[in-house]
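Lecture notes, part 5. Sequence design as translation. It can be helpful to think of inverse folding as translation between two languages: the language of shapes and the language of residues. The source text, in structure tokens, appears below.
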């Protein structure tokens, strides 16, 4: 083997190592995120802590609010301590927080545990995406991010099996003790995960970055001047200048409805399906199928968008999602219901990703991070609202309307992203950006 081939092979191994470690971290992220929804039917049935449906919705929102905080602060913290250390801190935080939930003696302590877990969960995903983007082989950034996002849904599948195998025979606390086990992964991360090359360069640690890049034949990123506070505010104000304010609001509203759907359904799907007359085993099988659909959707959405355009695919995907969610309120043969849940998972999870792709494409290179970041941040308020909404509907005795309410959120996102697409079709694309899928969440 030639010297060049050996270096290339080592570079591939480094990329595989980073992606593999990040994939496992995001798998645990998904497990911790979905475990609450998987055990919720049991908590309500046994009236644990005297839990009522509206309180259950509040608890679901605590985690998503924590994720909002984690996502909004992740960039600032990563700039100070590095992406590697932040990943380690996030995994440690949500694992320990699950231990708080497992030991909780009151709904208040349980809620605190979920909120702290949310901070770790929200900070991990964008950091992991940044890490794999640094080390992805040339031209494979979007594919690598799509592959990474499959881990989140694999974690959702794992949560259903953890609940199915442990909750009834052992108790709900056992499921949260399983979510503490990622602590064993922390030493592995600390020992094997390299630091982000972008961070090393930005901090002036160029010798260390150059040595790492040369050792594994990884391209060394160019030093980029960070934006000042004034520059960041100017980038935000740019989103509202001229006629851009309406386009920006349409993207934000579409993202709000999309994440309301994603986290509302993720939290309440097993409970709502049990309310439709399915037993707990079948209700948890729906979680598995929904997340399998999410894996397939993440892998196919980008290819579909390459042909038809991300805005059109997003609008179409949301329409199909709304139809699928509404159908779940209708009692159908079990096999048909399984198919509808799977297809709903395919369309729902990747529809939100297409919103981010649309915003990325329509933004100028120097304003793209701001545009996508704020679209994601505004959508996170929908992620907080979705679990709360499901709880309020159940508490009011309107559980049957739950699927309809979530379907209406899908219709609203379809309308908003469709209107944004119609407006942007009259304008030239900004910066000639290459279309790629940006991970949802």
């Amino acid at each position: 083997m030639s010297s060049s081939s050996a270096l290339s092979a080592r570079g591939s191994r480094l990329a595989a190592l980073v992606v593999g470690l990040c994939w496992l971290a995001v798998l645990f992220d998904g497990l911790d995120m979905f475990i609450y929804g998987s055990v919720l039917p049991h908590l309500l049935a046994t009236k644990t802590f005297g839990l009522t449906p509206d309180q259950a919705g509040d608890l679901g929102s605590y985690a998503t609010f924590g994720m909002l905080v984690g996502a909004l602060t992740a960039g600032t913290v990563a700039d100070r301590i590095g992406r590697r250390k932040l990943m380690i801190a996030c995994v440690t935080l949500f694992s320990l927080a699950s231990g708080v939930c497992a030991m909780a003696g009151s709904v208040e302590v349980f809620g605190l545990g979920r909120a702290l877990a949310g901070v770790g969960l929200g900070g991990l995903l964008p950091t992991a995406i940044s890490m794999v983007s640094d080390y992805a082989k040339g031209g494979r950034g979007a594919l690598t991010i799509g592959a990474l996002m499959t881990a989140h849904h694999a974690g959702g599948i794992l949560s259903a099996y953890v609940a199915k195998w442990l909750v009834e025979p052992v108790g709900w606390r056992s499921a949260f003790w399983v979510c503490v086990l990622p602590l064993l992964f922390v030493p592995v991360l600390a020992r094997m995960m390299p630091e982000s090359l972008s961070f090393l360069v930005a901090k002036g640690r160029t010798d260390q970055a150059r040595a790492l890049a040369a050792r594994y034949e990884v391209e060394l990123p160019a030093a980029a001047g960070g934006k000042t506070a004034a520059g960041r505010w100017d980038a935000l104000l740019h989103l509202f200048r001229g006629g851009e304010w309406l386009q920006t609001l349409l993207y934000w509203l579409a993202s709000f409805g999309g994440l309301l759907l994603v986290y509302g359904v993720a939290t309440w799907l097993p409970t709502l399906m049990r309310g439709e007359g399915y037993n707990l085993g079948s209700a948890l099988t729906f979680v598995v199928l929904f997340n399998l659909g999410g894996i397939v959707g993440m892998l196919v959405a980008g290819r579909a968008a390459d042909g038809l355009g991300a805005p059109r695919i997003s609008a179409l995907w949301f329409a199909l999602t709304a139809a699928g969610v509404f159908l779940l309120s209708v009692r159908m043969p079990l096999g048909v219901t399984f198919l509808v849940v799977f297809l709903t998972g395919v369309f729902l999870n990747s529809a939100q990703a297409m919103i981010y792709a649309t915003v990325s494409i329509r933004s100028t290179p120097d304003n793209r991070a701001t545009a996508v970041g704020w679209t994601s941040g505004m959508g996170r308020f929908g992620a907080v609202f979705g679990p709360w909404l499901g709880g309020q509907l159940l508490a009011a005795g309107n559980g049957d309307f739950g699927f309809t309410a979530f379907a209406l959120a899908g219709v609203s996102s379809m309308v908003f992203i469709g209107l944004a697409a119609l407006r942007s079709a009259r304008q030239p694309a900004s910066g000639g950006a290459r279309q790629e899928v940006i991970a949802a969440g």
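The translated text above is only one of many valid answers, since several sequences can fold into similar shapes. The two ends are 43 Å apart (CA to CA).
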